[in-house]
Amino acid sequence: MSTERIIDTDAFVQIGQPANAVVAEVAKKINKPYEGAAAMSAPAVIDNQNVTSTTPIRGSMTPMDMLNHAVETGANIETLTKLMDLQDRWEKNQARKAFEAAMSAAKAEIPEIKKSRKVDFTSGKGRTNYQYEDLAGIMSAVAPVLSKHGLHVRYRTAAEPNMPISVTCIISHSMGHSEENTLTAGRDDSGNKNSIQAIGSTVTYLQRYTLKAVLGLAAAADDDGSTADQTTDEAKPITEAQASVIRELIEQGELETPTFCDHWKVEAVTDIPMDKFNEVVGSLRRRVAWLKQQKSESAA
């Protein structure tokens, strides 16, 4: 007389495993029938080594349920190790799905980011007058919404002597899944900054842009209008920190700087107009992603 066990295959489908093969392999090594069958839905009946469908009933069985049952029935170490691996992957998948749901909900609630800071000075090149959103303003807008959905932001910074500064923005969910975005730039030596101020300026700048990138945020358009003597984003070139970001992406994209400049019709990277910065960065990131995909396919 064969012994039947009812095991839900959905938990294994969710983590990308060939459900029947995995369940059958594990079930062969469990010596006692599972007594909690009445509490599961969409199960499969395992008769010896053959897996067949049966009528759905309520409940569901996770890899942890199977692991607990395996321990109770004295399964061997090999079986327990496989189930622990399945449980770990299942938890990571659940955490990823919870993260995606929380991010989607948060983005729908994050208000428009206002450009609350103003730059206005005159140099030999004329008057520069524009507005931007500062890090504190962005955080005050997004932090309450992120917290509401179990999300939080932190940063990791690397600033070695004589090396570009790297800032990584990490957004994490309470269930453990996190994603990050990293940007690198040189020290902001513009103006009369001392060395500490130059580092601080770049770090703050990169924190602002990595946060916006990881959240997919866009600032509101300037609401004070333009006057005849203002330098608009179209005419104003990018900052040195922004140029450093582009140079890093040019290197990652395995491009030659002259080729890049010819494509964007500029003499140097620093001549890129401010209003083209996001377009240029987006184009370079797509190339970097394409290169990674090509290398991955070639290695397969």
Architecture overview:
Helices cover 46% and strands 18% of the residues. With 300 residues, it is α+β, with helices and mostly antiparallel strands. Strand 4 and strand 5 (126-132) form a beta hairpin. Helix 4 packs across helix 5 and helix 7 runs parallel beside helix 9. The radius of gyration is 27 Å and the shape is elongated. The protein starts with a strand and ends with a helix.
Output the keywords.
disordered N terminus, 300 residues, alpha+beta, elongated, three-stranded antiparallel sheet, 46% helix, 9 helices, 18% strand, 3 domains, Double Stranded RNA Binding Domain, single chain, 8 strands
Would you tell me the overall average pLDDT? 75
* Alpha-carbon Rg, integer: 27 Å
Query: Structural class, please?
Result: alpha+beta
Strand content: 15-25%
Widest β-sheet, arrangement of strands:
1-2-3
Distance N terminus to C terminus?
47 Å
Organism: Phyllobacterium pellucidum
Protein name: ERF family protein
Pfam families: ERF
How are the SSEs placed, and which strands pair?
Blueprint: E1 4-8, H1 10-14, H2 19-28, E2 43-47, E3 50-53, H3 63-72, H4 77-109, E4 117-123, E5 126-132, H5 135-148, E6 151-158, E7 165-173, E8 178-185, H6 195-215, H7 240-252, H8 257-264, H9 277-299
Question: What is the compact description of this entry?
Answer:
With 300 residues, the chain is of the alpha+beta class.
